[in-house]
Specification:
It is a single chain. With 185 residues, the chain is mainly α. It folds into two domains: 68 residues, no CATH class; 101 residues, no CATH class. The chain contains six helices and three strands; from the N terminus they run ββααβαααα. Strands 2-1-3 form a three-stranded antiparallel sheet, covered by helices on one side. A hairpin with a 5-residue loop joins strand 1 and strand 2. Helix 3 crosses helix 6 and helix 5 packs antiparallel against helix 6. The radius of gyration is 20 Å and the shape is elongated.
Length: 185
């Protein structure tokens, strides 16, 4: 689902959560905050995300945005049923089309991330090379660790379908990278 800021004309997807930040972190002034009564306890931002994901149009209107595209919102509404098939279809769409063009494919993106993570961990003393053989994080390790990040988010108890979609996507990319490496050896 896409929104348009009526003042600036900026267009964005609701997943960017640009609603937050307009009230300098002081939630009682936020129009969405008043709608949170009765939600499970927890961090306010978690409750806001949960409410927004199930009330997209109302949230947009409350924050002064205009709904300009009601296309494939990743979060289920009361009309959509979350199924294995729907999650896998959305993951396929992400990793086989949307993100492919944005990030030059997982092999390139994960290779860059692996290099940066390896350098960072080495500088912190968490990777020690006492031999002449350099050990580093591999692109397929990045895929697994990113899936674990999504699994940790799932573990918070706040349902967000895109966490499941993204975890499936990362694991699929990691499997492809690992399979490609096995064929090459």
């Amino acid at each position: 689902m896409k929104f348009k800021n009526k003042e600036t004309g900026a267009i964005f997807d609701y997943k960017n959560y640009l609603f937050c930040g307009q009230y300098d972190g002081y939630c009682p002034n936020c129009p969405i905050f008043s709608r949170l009564e009765g939600l499970a306890t927890g961090r306010v931002s978690d409750r806001c995300d949960k409410w927004v994901s199930s009330h997209l149009k109302e949230a947009a209107e409350l924050m002064g945005y205009e709904v300009i595209d009601e296309g494939d919102a990743l979060e289920p509404t009361h009309h959509q049923k979350v199924t294995r098939k729907s999650i896998l279809q959305k993951a396929e769409k992400c990793v086989c089309s949307d993100r492919e063009g944005q990030y030059r494919g997982p092999e390139n993106n994960f290779k860059t991330i692996a290099s940066l993570w390896t350098c960072f961990l080495y500088s912190k003393g968490l990777i020690i090379s006492e031999s002449s053989e350099w050990k580093c994080i591999e692109p397929e390790d990045v895929a697994i660790m990113m899936a674990l990040l999504k699994i940790a988010r799932i573990g918070t108890g706040v349902f967000k379908e895109d966490s499941y979609v993204d975890a499936c996507g990362y694991l699929a990319c990691g499997g492809e990278l690992e399979g490609r490496e096995m064929r090459e050896n």
